[in-house]
């Protein structure tokens, strides 16, 4: 009977620590998402702002937390076929940056193989 009493205490401590750890990790996730929840600009408004400077077809959009700042990342395929990633501040609507996306390596390899033939 004494042996089972010695096992109850460590199991109880392990259960409490596990529960506490899960609660802390849940709070951490919510804390990280908190920056995303403060976006004043809707996704549609961000797309409209991006398309005024970079007209074309929207390929992908994301709302991300960059260093505590909510930022929309929008990929647009321009009329010339160039894909540009535009970052828009989700609070102010300011265009933060734009980067031309690199071509896929497999496409470049295929075109090189055709040139060799």
CATH T-level fold name of the largest domain:
Nuclear Transport Factor 2, Chain: A
Q: Taking strands numbered 1, 2, ... along the chain, how are they ordered across the largest sheet?
A: 1-2-3-4
Largest sheet: 4 strands, antiparallel
Oligomer: single chain
Helix content: 40-55%
Could you say which structural class the secondary elements and strand pairing correspond to?
A: alpha+beta
**What is the helix/strand order?**
HHEEEEH
How is this structure best described in words?
- The chain has 117 residues and is α+β, with helices and mostly antiparallel strands.
- The protein has two domains: 1-34; 38-111, Roll (Nuclear Transport Factor 2, Chain: A), CATH 3.10.450.40.
- Helices cover 48% and strands 29% of the residues.
- The chain is built from three helices and four strands, in the order H-H-E-E-E-E-H.
- It has helices at 2-34, 43-53, 105-116; strands at residues 56-66, 69-78, 83-89, 95-100.
- Strand 2 (69-78) and strand 3 form a beta hairpin.
- The longest helix is centred in the first third of the chain and has 33 residues, at 2-34.
- Mean pLDDT is 75; it is low at 105-117.
